[in-house]
Every structure is written in structure tokens, then in C-alpha cells.
């Protein structure tokens, strides 16, 4: 995964601190049996960290480049990872998709792409409703495999703290494979480029051929000049991220770094707080304010200047480069009305954080067949509106955050090889929100690369 220099590798993994977490209101938390939970927490807090403090520091440096306008970040993966989907082929194909997108974006941006998987911990979901009713039977809503099962039975929907340990092990197995894939030659620029050529030979050909041709020339130049042989071209830095939602998972994973005495959430390199849990005086914002990892906060269309400044004061009072990322998810129809004004109202402060576009969560609707879906065209339109907003405000559009899979699912409609509303039932596999499939993800990368290359006003 990330390239680890000797001083990072030599970093002691840190001790489990005893922290009296303040008793603040926390939304969207499971209701566990307290005795069962206590047993699990005692075990989880002794488990090895999944990431090193030094790796999180390195990602913070990379995100500092994003906030300074010298890098772009690609964050992507499932809405909800599931325990059953932790398989070699699934992980490989998701990594492959992200790497393919990153090559295209690198070309378009002419900047380093900071690659972050929404994976190895994305096992918990906030829900609109606490319960779900089917055929007159009401049960607790599915909240992700870290909390309960998707199967619609009382036993499966029970909040089971043992699942925290299963999520830890699944995250550990995922990260292990990701580290292998991204450092062991699989990520070789030439193979990734060859996979992209496969995409362009399909229906995308006419629309994206010109850019594909330019990328091909650039890679051929690297090969001809011998640069493609370099070790750096055979591996990539790749980081993990998930929503820090279930505090009974995140808190026991916090460790004190022996070098500095500071706290890190060792469940992931990057964690974010979601739109539904970012209350200024709530436990989630308090949690991320205490850890040293680079962190994100989602912002929906209701976020105003005052809220954003107060979030900055809480989470990033020193305005440390790379520390805080705002992930905006305004909706394609709203972004142009709301985002430029918000950015402008922040003045200089808007330059002290990174801005990333989540074009998924503001664009969800239910199809006539009853599937939760999104239109590819709306996703693209929100990214376009995001770029235009930053151009207007003079701030850096720092990246995209996307729900995607490497599989050929039919969950979002549209794209150059279109999924129609009638196709949704063919391969609708997500247990929560609809993801872009492999082709739609690559197509998004080409469209965004064009925006990066040509600029959007
Ligand atoms: O991923 C985000 C949320 O968990 C999801 O959009 C909530 O969806 P719901 O409205 O089906 O609960
Ligand atoms: C829950 C999510 O998003 P948001 O907090 O923006 O609704 C998510 O990213 O899956
Ligand atoms: Mn989602």
C-alpha cells in the first residue's frame, strides 16, 4: 500500500490509551446489549492497528498538496462493504478500477492523484429511518455488516457487537490484499494503461478516443525513454478511508503514537464524518477533533458559512495543511446555486482546507421498479457544477469522492454503454446506495479528466 520509509516502518505501533471519551450526543449509533459490547470492546482494543501513524501523516502531507492546488484526490469504493464481498476478485477489480481512473485523471490534471479507497472499514451505514417494513412486518433497518445483517429476519437485524470484530478482520484481510496489489507489480503503469485500452475499444471509443490516444502517446514516451522501467512506475501509494460512524468501532482502534504521544484512529488512514452526524456539539465531530489522521466532513446543501467556520475551528483550529477536507454533496440541481456563495463567503479560509466533490449522495432517486438509483448524467453534472463553482470562487477543486465497484452491476442508469431504468433489476447488488459500475467509473474519469484539462466555467 503506501510506500513505507524506514523511519515509518520503525515506528512503534503505539499503545492503547485510556481515554474518558466525553458523553456527547451521538446520532445513528447501534443499540447493543451492554454486557456483550463490553466483552467485544475489551478484545478490539487489544487488536493490532490496521494502519501506522506514519502512514496517516504521509496522507496528511499528500492532502496538503491537494489543499494547495498541487494535487487532486480520487476517493472511491462501495457505499457499504459487505463481509461476503471480501473476496480476492472483488477487491482486485475495485483496485483495478480506481487505478485505471487514476491514470486517466493524472493525465487530465497534470498533477499527482492521491488515491484513496472507500474500503477496509466501510461497513456501517447511517439510515434515514430506524426501521423497515415489509408486508406488514417491521424490523430494525439494515445498518451495515458491522452492525446487523441484511436478511429480513429478526435474528439477522439484531445489532450484534460481535460484528465489530468481524468487520475488523474483514478490513485487515482487505488491507492486506490492497497492500499486495498496489506494491507487488499489479499496479504497473503499463498494465493499467493496457486495461484502459480495453475500455476504449468498447462503445466509449468515439467519445473518448482522442484523450485515450494522447494518454497512449504519453505512456509510449515514458516507455521509450526508459522511465516506465523505474520502480516508481510499478507501485502506487494507496490509502484507506471510511465513514467514522460507529464509535464503538473507532474508539477502541485509537492508539497513542509513541513518537509524539498523539492519538491516531488506526482503523484507517482517513476517516470522515457524514452529513447526518456532523453536529457541531456531537460525539462524531468531537472524535475526529481528537485524532491526528487527516479527516473529512461531508457538507450538504444546508451547510452555511457559520457552520463551516465552526467545523474548521473544532476540527482544524491550527488550519494545518492537509488536516481537513470538506466533501460537498449538494445535488446537481443545487450545486451552482449554493457552492459558489459558500466558498466566496469563507474568503481566505476557503483556501485552508481541501474541497472534494461527492456527486452521488445529492442525486439519488427511486426508479419506477423501486430501485434506489442515480443518473450518470447527474453525477457528471454535479462534478461540472463543482468545478464551475471553484472557478468562480478562485478555489481549488481538489478531488472526487465516488461510490463505485469494479463489477458490471446495474445500479446507476446512463453512461455511454447505458444502463436503462428497465435494466436495474438485472444486477442490482448493493445493500445500500447505487454504485457506478466499472465502465461508468472509467467514463467518469475521462469526463473529469477533460474538465481538469480544459477547465470548466
Ligand atoms: O450512504 C448513505 C446513506 O447511508 C444512505 O444514503 C441512506 O439511505 P436511506 O435513505 O436508504 O436510509
Ligand atoms: C452516508 C454517506 O453519505 P452522506 O453522509 O453524504 O449522506 C455515504 O458516503 O455513504
Ligand atoms: Mn452511500
Structure description:
InterPro entries: Aldolase_TIM (IPR013785), DAHP_synth_2 (IPR002480). Residues 1-24 are annotated as: Disordered. Keywords: Amino-acid biosynthesis, Aromatic amino acid biosynthesis, Transferase. This is Phospho-2-dehydro-3-deoxyheptonate aldolase. It is an enzyme of class 2 (transferase). With 457 residues, this protein is α/β, with parallel strands linked by helices. It has a single domain, classed as Alpha-Beta Barrel (TIM Barrel), CATH 3.20.20.70. Helices cover 39% and strands 13% of the residues. It contains 14 helices and 14 strands. It has helices at residues 6-9, 34-44, 53-67, 88-109, 154-157, 162-183, 189-200, 205-224, 247-250, 283-290, 305-315, 335-346, 376-393, 438-454, and strands at 72-77, 113-118, 131-134, 137-140, 239-243, 254-256, 263-265, 270-273, 295-299, 324-328, 354-357, 364-366, 372-374, 399-403. The protein has an eight-stranded parallel barrel, surrounded by five helices. Strands 3-4 form a two-stranded antiparallel sheet. The longest helix is centred in the first third of the chain and has 22 residues, at 88-109. It is globular, with a radius of gyration of 21 Å. Mean pLDDT is 95; it is low at 2-12. The structure holds erythose-4-phosphate, phosphoenolpyruvate and manganese (II) ion (MN). Manganese (II) ion binds at residues 79, 361, 403, 432-433. Residues 79, 361, 403, 432-433 line the site of manganese (II) ion.
Amino acid at each position: 500500500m503506501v510506500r513505507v520509509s524506514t523511519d515509518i516502518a520503525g515506528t512503534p505501533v503505539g499503545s492503547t490509551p485510556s481515554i474518558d471519551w466525553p458523553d456527547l450526543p451521538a446520532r445513528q449509533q447501534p443499540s447493543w446489549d451492554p454486557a456483550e459490547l463490553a466483552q467485544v470492546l475489551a478484545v478490539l482494543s487489544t487488536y493490532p492497528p490496521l494502519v501506522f501513524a506514519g502512514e496517516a501523516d504521509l496522507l496528511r502531507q499528500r492532502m496538503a498538496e491537494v489543499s494547495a492546488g498541487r494535487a487532486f484526490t480520487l476517493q472511491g469504493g462501495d457505499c457499504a462493504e459487505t463481509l461476503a464481498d471480501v473476496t480476492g476478485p472483488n477487491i482486485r477489480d475495485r483496485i483495478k478500477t480506481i487505478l485505471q481512473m487514476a491514470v486517466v485523471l493524472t493525465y487530465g490534471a497534470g498533477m499527482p492523484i492521491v488515491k484513496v479507497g472507500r474500503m477496509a472499514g466501510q461497513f456501517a451505514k447511517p439510515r434515514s429511518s430506524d426501521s423497515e417494513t415489509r408486508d406488514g412486518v417491521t424490523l430494525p433497518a439494515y445498518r451495515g455488516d458491522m452492525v446487523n445483517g441484511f436478511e429480513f429476519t429478526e435474528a439477522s437485524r439484531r445489532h450484534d457487537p460481535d460484528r465489530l470484530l468481524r468487520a475488523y478482520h474483514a478490513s485487515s484481510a482487505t488491507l492486506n490484499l490492497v497492500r499486495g496489489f498496489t506494491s507487488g507489480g499489479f499496479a504497473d503503469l503499463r498494465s493499467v494503461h493496457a486495461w484502459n485500452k480495453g475500455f476504449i475499444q468498447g462503445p466509449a471509443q468515439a467519445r473518448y478516443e482522442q484523450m485515450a490516444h494522447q494518454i497512449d502517446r504519453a505512456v509510449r514516451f515514458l516507455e521509450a525513454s526508459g522511465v516506465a522501467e523505474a520502480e516508481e512506475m510499478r507501485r502506487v501509494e494507496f490509502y484507506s478511508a471510511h465513514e467514522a460512524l460507529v464509535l464503538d468501532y473507532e474508539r477502541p482502534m485509537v492508539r497513542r503514537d509513541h513518537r509524539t504521544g498523539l492519538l491516531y484512529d488506526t482503523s484507517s488512514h482517513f476517516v470522515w464524518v457524514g452529513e447526518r452526524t456532523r453536529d457541531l456539539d456531537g460525539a462524531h465531530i468531537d472524535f475526529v477533533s481528537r485524532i491526528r489522521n487527516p479527516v473529512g466532513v461531508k457538507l450538504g446543501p444546508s451547510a452555511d458559512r457559520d457552520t463551516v467556520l465552526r467545523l474548521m475551528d473544532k476540527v482544524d483550529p491550527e488550519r494545518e495543511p492537509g488536516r481537513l477536507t470538506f466533501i460537498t454533496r449538494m445535488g446537481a440541481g443545487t450545486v451552482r446555486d449554493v457552492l459558489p456563495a459558500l466558498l466566496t463567503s469563507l474568503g481566505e479560509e476557503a483556501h485552508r482546507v481541501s474541497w472534494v466533490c461527492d456527486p452521488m449522495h445529492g442525486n439519488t432517486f427511486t426508479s419506477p421498479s423501486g430501485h434506489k438509483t442515480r443518473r450518470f448524467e447527474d453525477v457528471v453534472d454535479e462534478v461540472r457544477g463543482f468545478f464551475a463553482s471553484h472557478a468562480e470562487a478562485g478555489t481549488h477543486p481538489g478531488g472526487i469522492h465516488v461510490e463505485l465497484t469494479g463489477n458490471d452491476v446495474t445500479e446507476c442508469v446512463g453512461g455511454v454503454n447505458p444502463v436503462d431504468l428497465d435494466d436495474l433489476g438485472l444486477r442490482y447488488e448493493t445493500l445500500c446506495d447505487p454504485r457506478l459500475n466499472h465502465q461508468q467509473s472509467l467514463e467518469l474519469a475521462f469526463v473529469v479528466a477533460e474538465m481538469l484539462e480544459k477547465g470548466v466555467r
